[in-house]
Specification:
Layout (H helix, E strand, L loop, with lengths): L2 H18 L7 H4 L9 H11 L5 H10 L24 H6 L17 E2 L18 H4 L5 E8 L2 E6 L8 E5 L7 E2 L5 H14 L14 H10 L3 H11 L7 H13 L2 H10 L20 H14 L5 H10 L3 H13 L5 H8 L7 H6 L9 H7 L5 H14 L5 H10 L3 H13 L4 H12 L2 H14 L5 H8 L6 E2 L2 E2 L4 H10 L4 H6 L4
Helix pairs in contact: 1-7, 8-9, 9-11, 10-11, 11-12, 12-14, 13-14, 17-18, 18-20, 19-20, 20-22, 21-22, 22-24
């Protein structure tokens, strides 16, 4: 029996075990570890002759001896949503190109193991006509579609070129560069999937970085000269069901002496550390690299937030990076360690940007907060302005009406304008009518609808022409990202019925 025969038999046994033991994982509910019957050898030879290519031995053996496709929506048993049938070889290509050249699979793939950066997208490139251009499409030559990972993400098999036989991860939207797996061939990749599922590895993004358990991954971390590979091994340590104290000792060494990317990756693993070991990441709170600081904060807040609450709060107040600020805020809030006093500190500090709106959720707004809310209406951040306008609307303070009127005149955000309108209407501030007349005639569908409603509520008869025009529009209001099921007439009718103007009330009756 050859090595190939032994591996095929071993995979068959592991596949049967996964099926009968009800092993679960990402996408397994689609195929339930089932495969359709294998292809006949003659069918495979015909495919190879048609495309001028010889399929890699491992994949060829799999589809002719174990199974081919399957009962799931996207095929048979395999990583992510399963494996396509062979006749879906061009599924990914069809997503990125207008035609599928018959010699596509025979063209040597230029890809190599690991990440393969895409050519830069330049400002003078028209994405509708020139992207993806020939340089990008050339990166996908020699690749057969294996399956989908959801959305635009796909799995392929390189069948020509130096990386022949390896699995590659692809993105039809080109947001993620092609990533060629570290496993030597298709069968190693497939068997690794079964092994990791059975062993209870965490994470849904299977197949990145080197395979193995703690000893194998630590050997890469400490012994490889390939930094990208070392970082991948560190990430994969976080997927293991359990980690020893020795593993955290190795990672602690990287926290002290590794490059920035290694420090950040190592700190991220510490979110699974015992509470007595997580202190090792504290020095990274002063790290020059924002990702390293963020990973350290995440570890502290997930492992022992109560012990490190004061330290994390101090970090949040001095942290310059928005992503790290958000990381700490979310962690402290989830742990119940943010009270209204702390929240008000954040809300009162303009430098915290959008985070001010998040913190405002913890504040009970009172009339004495009006000056702060007025200042927030001038923020460059839409979420902060919306928050302030909504709070002022609820408070309904007469002293805030002139400020709201002034801000409404220049505000362009729909959500903020809507809150200000509600406030001004409740205050019976007639000057808002002059500001809304233009929108009632020339605004978008929803701007016209809201403007007309407010003017009708005030009984402003200058809106009569706009009302008559909208009442005969036989469709619902619609604009990008918004729609309504009722027509303009159905939506405006109730408003017209209660308008203080007899002339406007008459319009709802067709007068």
């Amino acid at each position: 029996m050859t090595d190939l025969d032994e591996q095929i038999a071993r995979i068959g046994a592991k596949l049967l075990h996964a099926r009968t033991a009800n092993v679960g994982g990402f996408g397994t509910g689609s195929h339930q570890f089932l495969l359709a019957p294998p292809l006949d050898e003659s069918e495979v030879r015909a495919f190879e002759a048609r495309h001028g290519v010889t399929l890699p031995d491992g994949y060829r053996a799999f589809i002719t001896r174990l199974g081919h496709g399957g009962p799931g929506e996207f095929g048979g048993a395999g990583p992510y949503y399963g494996l396509f049938a062979l006749d879906a070889w061009s599924d990914f290509l069809a997503c990125i190109a207008d035609d599928c050249p018959l010699d596509w699979l025979a063209r040597p793939s230029p890809l190599h193991p690991g990440a393969n950066p895409l050519p830069e997208f330049t400002d003078d490139t028209d994405p509708d006509t020139e992207w993806p251009g020939p340089a990008v499409l050339g990166m996908y030559e020699g690749i057969l579609s294996l399956g989908t990972r959801g959305c635009s993400f796909a799995t392929g098999l390189i069948v020509s070129g130096d990386a022949r036989g390896r699995v590659v991860y692809l993105d039809a939207d080109h947001g993620e560069p092609p990533y060629v797996g570290r496993d030597a061939d298709f069968l190693d990749w497939y068997e690794r999937w079964l092994d990791e599922l059975t062993a209870g590895f965490g994470g849904s993004w299977f197949g990145y970085g080197p395979a193995g358990g703690e000893p194998e991954l630590l050997a890469v971390v400490t012994g490889s000269s390939d930094r990208e590979l070392r970082i991948e091994a560190i990430h994969n340590l976080s997927k293991l069901p359990n980690l020893s104290a020795g593993a955290f000792e190795v990672l602690a060494g990287l926290l002290r002496s590794g490059a920035a990317t290694e420090r950040g990756a190592a700190a991220a693993v510490f979110n699974r550390a015992p509470a007595n070991l997580v202190e090792a990441v504290v020095p990274l709170l002063d790290d020059d690299d924002a990702k390293a600081r963020g990973s350290a904060c995440r570890a502290l807040v997930e492992v022992d937030p109560h012990t490190w609450s004061e330290r994390l709060w101090a970090q949040l107040l001095r942290e310059p990076a928005t992503e790290v600020q958000n990381e700490v805020y979310i962690g402290l809030k989830r742990a119940g360690l943010l009270d209204e006093q702390r929240a008000m500190t954040l809300v009162s500090t303009p430098e915290f940007g959008d985070l001010r709106a998040w913190a405002a959720e913890l504040v009970t707004w009172r009339p004495e907060h009006a000056p702060l809310l007025h200042d927030m209406l001038a923020s460059e951040h839409i979420s902060v302005r919306r928050c302030a306008a909504t709070a002022l609307d609820v408070l309904g303070l007469e002293a805030s009406v002139p400020i709201a009127l002034e801000r409404f005149a220049t505000e362009r955000d729909d959500g903020t304008r809507a809150a200000l309108i509600r406030m001004l209407v409740a205050a019976r501030e007639h000057r808002v009518c002059d500001l809304l007349l233009h929108a009632a005639t020339d605004g978008s569908d929803f701007e016209r609808l809201e403007a007309v409603r407010v003017l009708v509520a005030f009984g402003d008869e200058r809106v009569e022409a706009s009302v008559r025009e909208l009442l005969i529009v036989d469709r619902p209001p619609s604009e990008p990202g918004k729609w309504h099921s009722k027509t303009f007439a159905e939506l405006l009718g109730p408003n017209l019925d209660v308008s203080p103007s007899p002339k406007l009330r008459a319009l709802s009756k067709g007068v």
